[in-house]
Amino acid sequence: MNLKEKLVSSFMAFEDTVDVHSSVHDIRTEAIKTFEAEGFPTKRQEEWKYTSLNSILKHDYSVFPKHENDLEFKDVKKYFIHDIDAYKIIFIDGKYASHLSQTTHDGLDVCLMSSALTKPKYKMIIDNYFNKIAGKDSLSSLNTAFSYEGAYINIPKNKVVEKPIQIIHFSTGNEAATMLQPRNLIIVNENAHVQIIERHQSLTDNPVLTNSVTEIFANKRAIVDYYKIQNDRQSATLIDNTFVNQKQESLAKVHTFSFGGKLTRNNLNFYQNGERIDSTMKGVTIIGDKQHVDHNTLVHHIEPNCESHQDYKGIYSDNSTGVFNGKVLVEKLAQKTNAFQANNNILLSDKASINTKPQLEIFADDVKCSHGCTIGQLDESAMFYLRSRGIPEKEAKALLMFAFSNTVLESVKIPEIKQRITKIIADKLGVSTGFDL
Amino acid sequence: MLKINDLHASVEGKAILKGINLEVNAGEVHAIMGPNGSGKSTLASVIAGKEEYDVTQGSIFLDEEDIDELAAEERAHKGIFLSFQYPVEIPGVSVTNFIRTAINETRKAKGLEDMPGKDMLKMIREKSEMLEIDRKFLSRSLNEGFSGGEKKRNEIFQMAMLEPKLAILDETDSGLDIDALRIVANGVNKLKSKDNAVIVITHYQRLLDYIVPDFVHVLHDGKIVKSGTKELAHKLEAQGYDWIKEEVGV
């Protein structure tokens, strides 16, 4: 039985564990039909031309992993941004880990999707928001079909959340191979501010496949600052499907730091439903070995006077491969749109490669849209310049890469995250410290 | 201090230096002049350790040590400094942080601890004042968007911070107006001592009015064809290079 068949047949077993008479379950039932009809994406599809899931799908994944929450904080402390006070929603093999978490209902909801989907007091919110912007593609549908657990965050009007919220999904490798499908719903109401950090981390070398869906609603004048830290083991695959719906004058930023994992696919979609919206997505990708990272972005400019900014930097060594596919769609109504997109890459080896494809579809006539992509090597004259000042080769290389990534790093608003990212980059480049640029 | 014997160097198979002999002692200033394409910048780069150049014959000694096998950074740690003709722009790295990294890497190579932050700041303040460099300038990205004069002044600032034993100034005068030239030359003169040496590479006499050389060498087609004192530079300025070509029969 292949994975698709296994998942489709598992759906019935899943139905035994949930309320099949709820409106949410109607959505799930619809979604499993979509997945059954479409199956996993293949390279024949334009959107997946450069990313193959074949080798990933051949494992016999456990779809409902057993859970033994014997992890202690000290075992996993290093994966937390632990030097700041933060709300925490932590999962182990897909199951909520209360002993590692710090949730709240005091003035805001930082809690569990399983509660939101089942408790009557959330019904109206779920009816209004759940699966309203998630994609209807096969992978998002697969997640929707099994949607049950994840983070549920609801920030009320005018609330400025002082502490960041960390969402971490651990997988223990208790099973030979594990598939996880977290489902997150984040609602940031009018004039509210929130910072969120998301991470998926496996703790052993057993394969794990995560197919995650996150829906983010940034309502009028809301500010959302979202950080994805992707530095997983070589055995881990992440398919991240994130959908951001923005209302007027809201500001949403997503930073994606991709440093590890076997295969990472980021489907990041912004929908601008209002005027004077600002959407920003930035990323730094530094990979090696046979790692693969694919950034697939969409900004849908629907209404006038909005902006979008994309800035993705990639550094590829060894046999690693990257993809950047950035689509900017400007509707006829969306006059005075400012849309910027940049994707700059450095290839450090002859065997590394990057496929970069800007896709601009513009139906309005009074807009400013720019895109640029570059692929290059490390600048030899800059290397000589630095080395002639006494900076050794490895450090000089690292310094140039930090400088290259700096337009992304400098917009990270949480200093502890910036430090952490700098440390991860320094470790990857084999230098003792990050450079305080 | 520096002893170059019969140095031949080529780039991509093309011979550029064809037998250079040069000895520079502590406390001396040497000027190397010569027409375009004579190999002046190549000589500077080869001494500093640029990997693109192959040394095919001869040797370079610094304080009795053959440095031919040393990487550029190791030569820098031993006290060689090259002021670039075309300093490279490095967006994202501020002048201050760059110089801090350079100094601390050099100290690390010598087994020393990082320079304490307040000492570093004090030194930066002193040296930037000496070169009349605006403090704001130091937080800008290295050489990015700098005018020609700012780039050269920044090179000498780095030299002042790194306190090299042997400084090679490659066409430091190009792109400088007369005021900037005076500031830069004053800076170099203040850094001069009986323990260090300077090699000034230039087309023109102009800089040598400020940084007065003990010796002047004329480079032509990869060889030093004539050496003399500062009067030689005056003669070159007045009469050009043709008389030398005739004299040495090239």
From TrEMBL, chain A:
PANTHER family in the record: PROTEIN ABCI7, CHLOROPLASTIC
GO biological process, one term: iron-sulfur cluster assembly
Protein name: Iron-regulated ABC transporter permease protein SufD
InterPro entries: Fe-S_cluster_assembly_SufBD, SUF_FeS_clus_asmbl_SufBD_core, SUF_FeS_clus_asmbl_SufBD_sf, SUF_FeS_clus_asmbl_SufD, SufBD_N
Domain SUF system FeS cluster assembly SufBD N-terminal residue range list: 1-167
Pfam families in the record: SUFBD_core, SufBD_N
Domain SUF system FeS cluster assembly SufBD core: residue ranges: 174-404
Organism: Winogradskyella epiphytica
Family, per entry: Belongs to the iron-sulfur cluster assembly SufBD family.
UniProtKB/TrEMBL annotation, chain B:
Annotated ABC transporter domain residues: 2-246
Gene Ontology molecular-function annotations: ATP binding; ATP hydrolysis activity
Keywords assigned: ATP-binding, Nucleotide-binding
Protein family: Belongs to the ABC transporter superfamily. Ycf16 family.
Entry-linked CDD domains: ABC_FeS_Assembly
Pfam families named in the record: ABC_tran
Transmembrane keyword on record: no
This protein's name: Fe-S cluster assembly ATP-binding protein
SMART domains attached to this UniProt entry: AAA
